[in-house]
Specification:
The protein has 4 helices and 7 strands; from the N terminus they run βααβββαβαββ. A 7-stranded mixed sheet has the order 1-2-3-4-5-7-6, sandwiched between helices. The model has no long low-confidence stretch (mean pLDDT 92). Keywords: Acyltransferase, Transferase. Pfam families: Acetyltransf_1.
Length: 177
């Protein structure tokens, strides 16, 4: 008898940002980044009230065509990751809400998600992706730099923006080229 050691594959596809699975991913994302913020600054985790306030203050409802796009990453068919793209102008999109559930980090989901982000950004007509993040989100920052993002000057004044990254997209290479 032969046992298969093949791990389930990641699949990433556009999803409706208002779906229950998207809402669950976005809530988990906010809990993760909020808890890290409060642990770092106040030595505590977020309260349920703070999570609800954060979801209301930073809505994701613009991550729909034509103003954006929401991607869901699935591992073994289960939603485990997400990323959003927000159109800033005719040639630039902003990457936001990048999240991989902690229990599946290190399984290739971040890399698959970032490849899908590039493809989706091109599909939106973008030649450039920008993002902002916090300095304490070291894993996210490492993911971005591994996938070609470099630090750029500040392009916004978000309350949690501490470092900004950008990536120039190259044209997709045609199959068989």
């Amino acid at each position: 008898m032969t046992l298969s050691t093949t791990a389930p594959a990641w699949a990433v596809a556009p999803a409706t940002v208002t779906s229950p699975e998207a809402a669950a991913l976005l809530r988990d994302y906010l809990i993760d980044v909020s808890d890290r913020y409060f642990l770092h600054h106040q030595g505590r985790v977020s309260t349920p009230e703070e999570i609800e306030a954060g979801l209301a203050a930073f809505p994701s409802d613009d991550l729909v065509p034509p103003t954006g796009l929401f991607l869901v990453g699935r591992l073994g068919g289960r939603p485990q990751a997400c990323a959003g793209l927000r159109v800033r102008d005719a040639g630039t999109v902003e990457l936001t809400r990048v999240f991989v559930r902690s229990e599946v980090r290190g399984t290739g989901g971040g890399a698959r998600l970032m490849a899908a982000v590039d493809e989706a950004a091109r599909g939106l007509g973008a030649g450039r992706i920008v993002l902002d993040t916090r300095l304490d989100l070291v894993e996210a920052r490492a993911l971005y730099t591994r996938h070609g993002y470099t630090e750029i000057p500040a392009y916004n004044t978000g309350p949690y923006a501490e470092v900004w990254y950008g990536k120039e997209l190259t044209a997709a290479v045609p199959a068989g080229a």
